[in-house]
Every structure is written in structure tokens, then in C-alpha cells.
Amino acid sequence: MIFLILACSSDPKDNNFVDESSTTYYQDIAPILASNCVSCHRDEGTAPFPLDNYDLAKTFGTLIEASVINRSMPPFHVDNSGECQTFKHSLWLTDSEVTLISDWVAADYPEGNIQDITLPTFEQEAFNTTHSVTFEPYEASFANSPDDYRCFIVDPQVTSLSYLTGFEVLPSNRDIAHHMILYAPTNASALSQAYAKDEADPGPGYSCFGDPGVENRMIAPWAPGSDQWFYPQGTGVVMEENQILILQMHYSNASEDPLDSTTVNLNIQPEIGQELYTEFFVHSDIEIPPSNPEHTEIVNKKIVNFSGYNGPLELRAMGPHMHKLGIAGSAKLIREDGTEICLMDVPAYDFNWQRVYTYTEPILLQPNDRMEIECVFDSSSTNNTTYWGDGTNDEMCLMTVFATLPE
């Protein structure tokens, strides 16, 4: 357990001492920041500044307030209020917590009665590693952009059909490691294309803004805040014999040191209770007019038409994917009898914080049910119509779906 101890000021300000009904840093705000923000916003964290003491929280108070009101921070952008499902591993602040932060800022940052702040431990249990992948040190390039996306072809040495149940991501340079995604090329042609991209691009790996640029299935997403990520208990994603993977790193220009070599430890088991299937629900026929701050694209399809399986499934996790113009995404289930169920609402999508969200309880999908997805784009910065594509100036509208067969 880590304790943050602040010494008392010899000349406390008048607003340090307030009546018990006031919102104060030590009594109200510090616990919120400790539980939801300090895992990244600390000296050893990946955020650009710490928020683990009163002076720093006060300095960034208005930024904190704006970020929690628009739900850009903490970086858990799916609505977890309960109005549209609930999700595990949530950093979602309650409305009352957001109100406390706003009240504290409006009251000119009362400090309250100074006391020790107990922070959660940031150390995790030793990961049970069965396989591991890494790449030779790569020097991220920020000459033309504050972000660098790089794909590395890696071999986890999988000798037989097995299942990925969890993973641990260990960047050597946490200051610039923004997110990691492991992809599996879906066929020999896709793998050959990836090797060709690697050969054509000097240095380790190849440039891959947005995605690997080849047909793939996404098997392992990670963003800072927790090194370890586990699939729902008893499930796993299939790993073919001699499976080759593409390890994508997103680097942000947050340090003078651009060098990194990330290691991803894997827990791969020969058998699991339920195979976790991954699929993309894709709306590729998009047409986004220029200079439109809120253009919406909607599509719905029968479950069987995108899953390829003519039977019931249980939806376990899902996450939206768009490019730079994407600002919001949602999904609903339309039962065969017309009943509608909200599946996911991401009112403030952020390309830099793409996540897959795991449901607290699985949702039954029948083959003739329809899933409808909605993607919202802000094309204010464009002068031409934007269509589906892999390029930086193209767009996408899809949901990454994780499902199992019912037990």
C-alpha cells in the first residue's frame, strides 16, 4: 500500500478550513482521483502530469472538471450509468462524483482537513506467462505527427491449436506507449502482405496508422492503466498452430526519449471452457459529406449475416472503431418480435482511446435478431466526401464483437 503524506502549510489559506458540509480536496476529491486517475497521473505513470497532491489537483482543477463533464477522462468512454448495460473494469465516474468535482472548483478549491491519502497499490500479481512476444528496440518518429503507429510481426511459438486467455503488456518506455493491439492475420495472403509491408519499410516493423493494413482479427487490446487484461472467466481466443501475430504500438510524443521495445506476455492454454469468437460488424458503405459537424451513418444486419453462425450466441464484449472523424458510436439489438435493447452507447468516442468493453452479464443473441450500429462523424475539417478505407483520410464504422456459444 502506498501512502501520500502532505506536510501542513505554515500559512494555511482561509479556505483550507471549511464547514463539514463543504466539498473539499482531502475529504471528497482526493479519493475520487486516487481511485480513478492516479494510476496514470503519477510520477511513474503514463499521463503527462501527476494528480496525486492538492497543489497539482488545484492547478489542473478546471481541466479536471471539463474532462469529467465531457467524459473524456477517465478514459472509459462507454456509458456505464446503467441506462445502456453495465461493463466490467469500469473507470466511469458517477454523476454525484462529477458534481463533487464541479462544486469543488466552483468553491475555489477548498483544501479541507489535511490527512494522509491512501492510494491503491499499482503492483499487480505475477502474471502466469506461457508465451511471450517482443520486438527489437524501435525509435518512434514524430517528425510529421504527434502520433506514431508501428506494426511488428511476432511469433509466439504456438506449436498446437490453443487459446489465449489473458495477456500482460510491458512497454520499456511507458512515457510514449499510448496503446497496443495484437492482431492475427486471417489467412496466408494477409500474412504475406504484412511481411511485404515489413520488408518495404526500413527499420523494425512497418508504419500502420489505424490498423495493420491487412485482413485480420483483433485478439488483444491494451491501453495504459492496467498492464494485465483477462478474457471472461473460462473463455479464450483461438490461436492456430504456428500462429504469427502483428503487434501494433501507438506511440505519442510525450517524452524526449523515443525508444521503446514492448513485451507482451501471453497466457495460452490447450483447452478452455468456451471459445471466445471475434467478429467485426462492419458498415462499409459510408459516405460522409464535408463540412458537417454531426453526420450519422446507420446500418443493421441479422446476427447470422455478420457472425456466420446460424444459432444462438452470447455477447460478452464489444467495442467501436472509427478513424479521426468519429465522435460517437452506439449499438442496439432488435429482437425478431421488434423489441429493442440498448447494447452500447459511446457518446464521446476518441480514436486515441479505443477499447473493448466487457459486459457485466452476457446478452443472448439469436440468429434472426438484428444488430444496429450508429456512427457519428465530425467532418468540419474536410473539403471532400469521405468514404470507407484504411488510410488516414478515410473512415470506418464498425463494432468489434466478442461472443461465445451459450453454455
Task: Give a structural overview.
This protein is an alpha+beta fold and 407 residues long. The chain has three domains: 118 residues, no CATH class; 142 residues, Sandwich (Jelly Rolls), CATH 2.60.120; 130 residues, Jelly Rolls. 14% of the residues lie in helices and 35% in strands. The chain is built from six helices and 24 strands. The strands form six sheets. Strands 3, 6, 10, 11, 14, 15, 18, 21 and 24 form a nine-stranded mixed β-sheet that branches. Strand 19 and strand 20 form a beta hairpin. It starts with a strand and ends with a strand. The N terminus is likely disordered.
Output the keywords.
single chain, 407 residues, alpha+beta, Jelly Rolls, 3 domains, 9-stranded mixed beta sheet, 5-stranded antiparallel beta sheet, 24 strands, 35% strand, disordered N terminus
